[in-house]
Each structure stands twice: as structure tokens, then as C-alpha cells.
Amino acid sequence: MTAADLVLPEARSGRRRATKAGKQLHAGPVTYVALTVFALVSLAPLVWTAIAASRTDRRLAQAPPPLWFGGNLFKNLETAWDQAGLGTAMLNSVIVAGAITVSTVVFSTLAGFAFAKLRFRFSGLLLLLTIGTMMIPPQLAVVPLYLWMSDLGWSNQLQTVILPSLVTAFGTFFMRQYLVQALPTELIEAARVDGASSLRVVWHVVFPAARPAMAVLGLLTFVFAWNDFLWPIIALNQQNPTVQVALNALGTGYVPDQAVIMAGALLGTLPLLIAFLLFGKQIVGGIMQGAIKG
Amino acid sequence: MTSKEALAHPASSAETAPGIPPGAVRGARGRGAPDGAPSWRSRLYRWDTKASPYAFVTPFFVLFGVFTLVPLLYTVWYSLHDVQLSALDHQSWTGLANYKNLLSSDFFWNALRNTFTIGVISTVPQLMAALWLAHMLNYKLRGSTVWRVVMLTPYATSVAAATLVFTLLYSWDGGMVNWILHFFGVDPVNWRESDWGSQFAVSSIVIWRWTGYNALIYLAAMQAIPADLYESAALDGANRRQQFWHVTIPQLRPTVLFTIVVSTIGATQLFGEPLLFGGVSGTKGGSEHQYQTLGLYMYDQGWIIGNLGKASAIAWTMFLVMLIIAAVNLLLTRWLRRSDDRG
């Protein structure tokens, strides 16, 4: 595939496994049974969401509960898409989470690179500030943000949701930690000696080296942005919701048809699951590489 | 080769020399500056070297400053004022009135208690299960990647979707959980109304979503433990179980601390799960406020009741609670390490 795959976990863990092969024990049957139980618990709620979303019953809370697929999936999905406004919400969430992800990854990589490899005044102090502010809860910013938004007349507009999350302290720190060990300083120096400008160095040296971590940070950021509840629910109303806001309305409103609610839940989590199935291996690899360490 | 040709084939040297990234071109040397005064090019180069780090960190700090740090200070300001949603233009200085109001409110103490209880019953079992799961994933497995991806799927489920499903499973009459309990001859539990039942139900959503994620973090740390530690433990006659307790667990301590801190931060801010679980009375955290967390309490005070000054005070109180818990965590680890050294 690409150069990124060369440094991706399969290659690495393969080498690691070779060295540990003698020491690593094979799992016994008990372990497999226990893992299967964990796997079932992990998957069952999702599978049951799909089952519930495909039923014709309006009430799913019944004894015995429905345990197999009905034939109504597409009709329920359609109802959720149109009537519960999930269609608009999906598009909004893709725009919001997409914009936040791209911006966080790019700016975190730039700042992380500067903190990891370049010398500049106050760099230690600024890094401390970044680490120190990683713990700030979002609750601490929402009241002023809400008042500014009211002044600007921006309530219910997507940029209101996007702007406050364009960068995160965690992202910058994460990229710095990765680049400190993954980007050889000689490589940058060589490029500088050759007279390459900083932008060229970033484009041709830093970004390629940072790619695996960028993929992981991108996925983490996308999941976070997709799931963000507090600020969107304050900033948006039902006319222009994100998925979480729309699902909240669906769950707290009076929709008697529980199969439609489940269809909405299925729709609302589908993009995440698809992204995850496409890049799951990479994100697992990213976590396994210890990129997500304190 | 004239300088024109060098410009026309900027990557020629890079093409022939593997290992030098394209773009790190050796053309600059071919276009040497005239002797004597430094050329504009080298001056530009030096300026570029000096200024670029600032250019790289500026976007981050500008955006972060405007949307996180500045609002933080404004929140202090608003917490000392009377700010009502219905009359945003009439803000009057009230000093510490919002904080006094808060500390004398039963609902605040109730929310603090709930946040703590739900935090403990969602974090402790979650991290213990994650540790056990990581230990099992650390064996040689058939299809190890598949197992790992499966364990991580709950993390990739949207909060709202997961909560809607669990709410249905926990329904009072006809929910699957009570149906299963009935199957085993246990009386049905009112997961929505009872105190411990509803708190357990909310916690279970958190546990379900985060166990696999933390297990992978532990697994990464386990795989980084040097094998010779186990070998020397084995030479000392330690069996598998003793190796786990005397090698794996101590080696994992920094990672465990990290996950405790992160989970604690998450637990302090818990918002979406109880909100949706509560349905119509979501912001109250149930009919009796039995699972109203601090996050819900703040939203309810600020945007349902409309007292933004008080909401600001709640936000700062939440931050303080978090700092206290983090400090306690740190002290505990120090104390543990010291007692370990003595032992």
C-alpha cells in the first residue's frame, strides 16, 4: 500500500513477536471461552440494535424480547431519516466532525513538530501550558461561548459547533510525543543543509514521518467530535441538529415507535462503525504502539 | 550544469540518492551566492529558520487561546455575576452569591454525590475488567487483531445510540435485562426509578463503551515489559500467577495511573449518558434527581432554569473537584511507591 504501512504495527509486532515467541504462551481453552464472552458482550447491544431496527413491532420492550430480524429495516430507517431529521443530522455531523478532525490533525502536527524538534524561545513554558490545560473540562468554556454566540447571532449554525474544537491540547501533546521518537533529527538537518525551506521540510519530511500518528489522532478526534454532546446541544436546536442532538430529541420526545428509535440509533452510529471497520487495524496498532500513553 | 538546468531538474539528485527525501534538494549548493556579502537568499534562509517555529505553533495557540483559555477567565467573571438567560444584557455583580447559593443547595450536594458514586462504580470495575482482558489478549491468540478490533467496537459506538439501546434493554416492563433476571427467578428491578439501580444502569453504559479501549492501552504496556524480568522471576521460582502480581502489575503502575486519571476526568464530566437515559426528565437526572451528575446539574441550571451565573460557578466547582481527585491520586501513588520501597 503506502509508506505508512511500513511503520505500521503488523511489521513491528511481527518482529517483536519473533523475539518473544519463546516466552509468549499460547492461550488455553479457558481463555478463549472468556474472550468469547467479552466479545459477545461487546457486540450484542449493537447486533440487537440492528434486530430491533428491523422489526414491525412498535413496542420492543416485551417479554419475550424479539431475538431475530424482522422485515421492516428499510422502512424504519427511512422513517428515522425523514421524520426524525436524521438525514440532516448525519450530514451536519459529517461536516462538523470532518472539519474538526482535519484542523486538529494538521495544526497538532505543526505545533507538535515545533515542540519536538525545533528550538525557540519559551518553548518549554508553552509546552507546560499545553500539558497543564489538557485537563480543562469543556464545561468551563460553554457559558462565555454561548454568550458570544448570542451576540453574533450565530445560534443554530454549524460554525458555532466547529470553531471551539478546531484544536486540542491533547492533539498537540500527542503529536509531540510521537515525533520526538519517530522523526530522526538528522533527517531534518540534512534537508535544512540542502537549503529546503521550513514549509518544504514539513511537507516532505515531517508529514510523511507523522502519518501513522496522524491517522490515529484523526480517528480519535473523529470519534470524539461525533460523540460530543454538551456544546452541540447548547448551540443547536432541532431545526439543524448534529446526530447526538437529533437522537437526544428522538429518545426524549414522544415517539411511540421503538423500532424507529432503534433505526435512528443504528443510523447515528453507522458512520463511526464504518470508519472503524476500515481503519480499526490502524487504530488498534496506534494504541498498541503506545502512542496513546500519558 | 547551469543554474537554469538545476532549476529545471530540482529533484535530479534526490532521484539518484535513495534515502534523501524528495524536496530535500541539493540544488541550493549549485546556486552559490556571490562571494562577500550574504545573499538575500541566505538571509531569507536564516530568517526562515528563526521564525518558522513560531509560525508552526501560532495557529494552535491562537485557536486554543481564543476558544479555551479566554472563555475560562470569562467564566470566572460570569460566576461572580448574576447572568440570566432571559435578560442577557442585565448582568450585575453579585460577588460570591452564586457560590454560596450553590453550597446551600441540596441538589448540588446530591449531584456531587451521584457523580462520585457513578464515577466509582463505572471506573473501578471497568479498569479491573480491562486489566483481565488485556492479560488474556496478551497470550498468543489465533486472530489476535480480530479480537482486538471486536473489543474496541463499543468505543466506536455513538454515545447516544448506545444509551438508547441500553435504555430499552433496562425497561421496567418487558426490558431484556429484567426478562433475563426473571428467567433466573430474580424479581424485576426498576432501573429507571430506583437509586442504585439507575446509577448502576448509567454506569454500565460507561463500562461497556470504555473497557476494551483501556484494555488495549494496558495490553500495549504489557507488551513493552522486558521479557528478562519474567525470566528472572521464573528462575526465582515464581509461577504464572505470582509473575502476574509481582512483575506485570508493578510494571503497569504508570499506565494504570494514567487510565485512572483519564477515567476520572471522564467521570467528572459525565453528561450524555444520564441525560438520554432519563428521557423526558433527562436534565433532572430522573424523577428524584437520583442520577443527576454535576454535568447535568450545570446544564439544567444554565439552560433549562436559565441561571448562567450559577452554571459558571458549577463549572469552576467541577474543575476544582477534578483537581482534588487528581491530587489525591498522586498522593496515593507516592504513598504506595514509598510503602513498596520499604516493603
TrEMBL record, chain A:
<comment type="similarity">
    <text>Belongs to the binding-protein-dependent transport system permease family.</text>
</comment>
<dbReference type="InterPro" id="IPR000515">
    <property type="entry name" value="MetI-like"/>
</dbReference>
<dbReference type="InterPro" id="IPR035906">
    <property type="entry name" value="MetI-like_sf"/>
</dbReference>
<feature type="transmembrane region" description="Helical">
    <location>
        <begin position="161"/>
        <end position="180"/>
    </location>
</feature>
<dbReference type="GO" id="GO:0055085">
    <property type="term" value="P:transmembrane transport"/>
</dbReference>
<feature type="transmembrane region" description="Helical">
    <location>
        <begin position="125"/>
        <end position="149"/>
    </location>
</feature>
<keyword id="KW-0472">Membrane</keyword>
<keyword id="KW-0812">Transmembrane</keyword>
<feature type="domain" description="ABC transmembrane type-1">
    <location>
        <begin position="90"/>
        <end position="279"/>
    </location>
</feature>
<feature type="transmembrane region" description="Helical">
    <location>
        <begin position="89"/>
        <end position="113"/>
    </location>
</feature>
<feature type="transmembrane region" description="Helical">
    <location>
        <begin position="201"/>
        <end position="226"/>
    </location>
</feature>
<keyword id="KW-1003">Cell membrane</keyword>
<dbReference type="GO" id="GO:0005886">
    <property type="term" value="C:plasma membrane"/>
</dbReference>
<keyword id="KW-0813">Transport</keyword>
<protein>
    <submittedName>
        <fullName>Carbohydrate ABC transporter permease</fullName>
    </submittedName>
</protein>
<feature type="transmembrane region" description="Helical">
    <location>
        <begin position="259"/>
        <end position="279"/>
    </location>
</feature>
<keyword id="KW-1133">Transmembrane helix</keyword>
<feature type="transmembrane region" description="Helical">
    <location>
        <begin position="30"/>
        <end position="51"/>
    </location>
</feature>
<dbReference type="Pfam" id="PF00528">
    <property type="entry name" value="BPD_transp_1"/>
</dbReference>
From TrEMBL, chain B:
<dbReference type="InterPro" id="IPR051393">
    <property type="entry name" value="ABC_transporter_permease"/>
</dbReference>
<feature type="region of interest" description="Disordered">
    <location>
        <begin position="1"/>
        <end position="38"/>
    </location>
</feature>
<dbReference type="GO" id="GO:0005886">
    <property type="term" value="C:plasma membrane"/>
</dbReference>
<feature type="transmembrane region" description="Helical">
    <location>
        <begin position="116"/>
        <end position="137"/>
    </location>
</feature>
<keyword id="KW-0472">Membrane</keyword>
<feature type="transmembrane region" description="Helical">
    <location>
        <begin position="149"/>
        <end position="172"/>
    </location>
</feature>
<feature type="domain" description="ABC transmembrane type-1">
    <location>
        <begin position="112"/>
        <end position="329"/>
    </location>
</feature>
<dbReference type="Pfam" id="PF00528">
    <property type="entry name" value="BPD_transp_1"/>
</dbReference>
<feature type="transmembrane region" description="Helical">
    <location>
        <begin position="313"/>
        <end position="332"/>
    </location>
</feature>
<keyword id="KW-0812">Transmembrane</keyword>
<keyword id="KW-1003">Cell membrane</keyword>
<dbReference type="InterPro" id="IPR035906">
    <property type="entry name" value="MetI-like_sf"/>
</dbReference>
<protein>
    <submittedName>
        <fullName>Sugar ABC transporter permease</fullName>
    </submittedName>
</protein>
<comment type="similarity">
    <text>Belongs to the binding-protein-dependent transport system permease family.</text>
</comment>
<dbReference type="GO" id="GO:0055085">
    <property type="term" value="P:transmembrane transport"/>
</dbReference>
<feature type="transmembrane region" description="Helical">
    <location>
        <begin position="51"/>
        <end position="74"/>
    </location>
</feature>
<dbReference type="InterPro" id="IPR000515">
    <property type="entry name" value="MetI-like"/>
</dbReference>
<keyword id="KW-0813">Transport</keyword>
<keyword id="KW-1133">Transmembrane helix</keyword>
